[in-house]
Design goal:
With about 220 residues, the protein is an alpha+beta fold. About 20% of the residues lie in helices and about 45% in strands. A hairpin with a 5-residue loop joins β7 (about 110-120) and β8 (about 125-135). The protein starts with a helix and ends in an 8-residue tail after the last strand.
Length: about 220
């Protein structure tokens, strides 16, 4: 009788051990499945991104609007801003492809930050924003050429530099700023001009007012 009880107890133990092993195996399989499932990542779709080059433009200047990541289904992509003369249509170019367009900034655009909004047609509802900073052009001072034979414009503020242009005697020109250079008639000041780009000797120019120093 005792032998039967012992055998019965052993059988129960083996049965319990077997169930525990099955349970552990089931837990391990589930853990591995969860770990494997956790390693699979669903690729995310990147939202379109807008940018401007340069992002700071003078009144009346130009900037390139760029959009990356536009949906392929887009029939057209356009950029708008209260600083733009008109709505800009962006064209798909390059590899990897991007949508590009040239924007003309209003000459009367208020200096400061302006929002640029880019959106597409036929490719879902999305909007990409960028910021454009409008700055006022540098103020110029009028000056009159007093050299009897006219005045040469030099690439650098010295008489040995290459000639980039010429002003007639008595002509009124725009002076951007002043810079020290080679002495001309005892005067070391030269005025910077933008059209044609270069410098003219202050010895032969009569400014209408103070000319700021070049930065």
């Amino acid at each position: 009788m005792r032998r039967l009880e012992g055998k019965t107890q052993m059988m129960v133990r083996y049965a319990v051990s077997g169930c525990a092993a099955v349970a552990l195996a089931s837990v391990a399989t589930t853990s591995f499945a969860q770990a494997d499932a956790g390693s699979v990542q669903t690729p995310s779709v990147m939202a379109p991104r807008a940018s401007l080059t340069p992002d700071s433009v003078k009144q009346g200047g130009k900037a390139t609007v760029r959009l990356d990541g536009a949906p392929r289904a887009c029939r057209s992509v356009q950029a708008r801003s209260d600083a733009f003369v008109r709505t800009v249509t962006l064209t798909k170019r390059g590899n990897p492809s991007a949508h590009l367009g040239r924007a003309l900034v209003k000459g009367t655009a208020v200096p400061g930050r302006h929002q640029v909004t880019v959106s597409g047609t036929g490719c879902g509802r999305w909007v990409a924003d960028a910021t454009l900073t409008v700055v006022s052009p540098a103020k110029t001072v009028k000056g009159k050429v007093i050299a009897r034979t006219g005045l040469k414009v030099r690439q650098q503020p010295n008489s040995d530099s290459a000639v980039t242009g010429f002003f007639r005697s008595g002509e009124v020109i725009d002076l951007t700023c002043r810079k020290m250079g080679q002495p001309v008639g005892g005067n070391r000041t030269w005025y910077q001009v933008s059209m044609p780009k270069g410098y003219v000797a202050a010895r032969y120019v009569k400014p209408a007012g103070p000319v700021p120093q070049c930065r």
